[in-house]
Amino acid sequence: MELKEAKDKFIHTWGTLATQWGINRTMAQIHSLLLLSAKSMNADEIMSELQISRGNVNMNLRDLMDWGLIYKQLLPGERKEYFIAEKDVWKVAKQIAKERRRREIGPLIDAMADLKEGIKPDTAEKEEFLKIVNDISTVTVFADSTLTSLLKADENWLISSFVKVFNR
Amino acid sequence: MELKEAKDKFIHTWGTLATQWGINRTMAQIHSLLLLSAKSMNADEIMSELQISRGNVNMNLRDLMDWGLIYKQLLPGERKEYFIAEKDVWKVAKQIAKERRRREIGPLIDAMADLKEGIKPDTAEKEEFLKIVNDISTVTVFADSTLTSLLKADENWLISSFVKVFNR
DNA sequence: TTGAATTTTCAAAATATTTTGAAAAAAATA
DNA sequence: TATTTTTTTCAAAATATTTTGAAAATTCAA
Known about the structure:
The structure is a homodimer.
Chain A: H1 2-20, H2 25-36, E1 41-42, H3 43-50, H4 54-66, E2 70-74, E3 81-85, H5 89-118, H6 124-152, H7 155-158, H8 160-167
Helix pairs in contact in A: 1-2, 2-4, 5-6
Chain B binds a DNA duplex through helix 4.
């Protein structure tokens, strides 16, 4: 079964890459499983598909919802909760970028601001130190605002043109 | 001693943040120590300053050189090797972005390309699967090329204007 | 209400990563 | 060359993170 094989490879690859850049492997695997699934899935299905424990599934489903990558779906007549992934890959990328911006850039900007506050440039040494702090602050704010612009840019002119060009 | 305190806070903060986004804590601490140091330092000095083992220092110094964030400096009359950090923070940011692009985006592009190769769209299911793979491919290539353009942009018009605006 | 089904929690176990430190290798000196 | 200094390596230890699974909490139907 060739498709099954490709899907497994996809899930495995996604999980491996994720760990290499600081994201939990299981979270990535659950995400890709749902991304590839036409139907929404419940915890038991995910458990048996990925061979992981209930607690693990539960915890990572909640994280994925926090990241805005999956949604809870309540099926009429079903007691169990079902989950479905956001299938619009541009939205997915946007969410990931947003979350990483929040986690990686935000705290850095705050930390540099605190350091700036605390030190008066009354010696050459302190000026040196503040120069570095200021420079990092500047670059970080630059990265932050660049990313924000990109994220706010209307995807319809920014991406759809790229999609058209690359997808054919 | 206020400056010492601020420097320690800087080193500590940098180290903590780094772990939160997948970079080794010690590597980040050594980097910030060198970034804040006017003089180059040798392994023994770094060991005693950060209270870490020789092996750890050695390994992380090599990683930092791989990242292009520090340089080896051979001082005349000295047997020991000295290390000095790149102080141009824009260059530092550029190096970090390059390295992360190489580690995070490159493998993803490759993996998606492999999957595209391996599957023929001869059923609706396979077409579905390939759509996702293609979309990820597209978004990833887009991110890659956007980042590449930013990195290639001449810093003198792109950044220095920002620096002037924000630094005052 | 009660009780069965489902989800959540969290301490302990398993796994993965980082750090140590001493031995080996390499480099410099005499 | 032999000796000393310095750097590198890497198995074992320490630490950190992830996963498990059973108990507790919650939800829902009757």
